[in-house]
């Protein structure tokens, strides 16, 4: 007994009758998806709508940096380079001691090595490093991915403000300290 064969097995050409259901099914799918909202963006014509906490680039607030080297020591990729020198600040009162402070000479991050883990930002005790969602800094020369302190400082403009505190959270310590009434010197009448 001979078994029925499909057109491709038998070598015969498909007829217009056998193609019609497939074409109709394809057209129905096209009509259905044509009206659906798209999930793609026509970048760079349309800028992506990124969440404010996106990890685009690291920004440096130079005034806050004390050159403590903590970020450079904790960076798993060793891609933070810091140079600083000590400066002596003369005593302001007679008999007082001179003080020393670190002056930042160089602070660079090599974004060709950085893996965007965020450890440097987490460990900085002085809030000198921040995430900026800015990501458009691709270069044709890999050496240009080494951002110096001026370039890292420039990214501060694109750092979004911190999210609002939960309405039932405690007042931040620094605001509570600033709102505290000043202490009266001892012995002075109130
Ligand atoms: S994000 Fe991670 S890898 Fe990049 S500089 Fe900071 S600590 Fe290093
Ligand atoms: S950025 Fe922060 S952790 Fe890094 S050297 Fe400056 S103060 Fe220290």
TrEMBL record:
GO terms for cellular component: plasma membrane. Residues 56-85, 105-134 form the 4Fe-4S ferredoxin-type domain. Its cofactor is [4Fe-4S] cluster. It catalyses: a quinone + NADH + 5 H(+)(in) = a quinol + NAD(+) + 4 H(+)(out). [4Fe-4S] cluster 2 binds at residues 75, 114, 117, 120. It is an enzyme of class 7 (translocase). It is found in: Cell membrane. [4Fe-4S] cluster 1 binds at residues 65, 68, 71, 124. Residues 1-18 have a biased composition (Polar residues). Keywords: 4Fe-4S, Cell membrane, Iron, Iron-sulfur, Membrane, Metal-binding, NAD, Quinone, Repeat, Translocase, Ubiquinone. InterPro entries: 4Fe4S_Fe-S-bd (IPR017896), 4Fe4S_Fe_S_CS (IPR017900), NADH_quinone_OxRdtase_chainI (IPR010226). Binds 2 [4Fe-4S] clusters per subunit. Residues 1-21, 156-190 are annotated as: Disordered. GO terms for molecular function: 4 iron, 4 sulfur cluster binding; iron ion binding; NADH dehydrogenase (quinone) (non-electrogenic) activity; quinone binding. Its EC number is 7.1.1.-. It is a peripheral membrane protein. Belongs to the complex I 23 kDa subunit family. NDH-1 is composed of 14 different subunits. Subunits NuoA, H, J, K, L, M, N constitute the membrane sector of the complex. PANTHER family: NADH DEHYDROGENASE UBIQUINONE IRON-SULFUR PROTEIN 8, MITOCHONDRIAL (PTHR10849), NADH-QUINONE OXIDOREDUCTASE SUBUNIT I 2 (PTHR10849:SF24). NDH-1 shuttles electrons from NADH, via FMN and iron-sulfur (Fe-S) centers, to quinones in the respiratory chain. The immediate electron acceptor for the enzyme in this species is believed to be ubiquinone. Couples the redox reaction to proton translocation (for every two electrons transferred, four hydrogen ions are translocated across the cytoplasmic membrane), and thus conserves the redox energy in a proton gradient. This is NADH-quinone oxidoreductase subunit I. It comes from Knoellia subterranea KCTC 19937. The gene is nuoI.
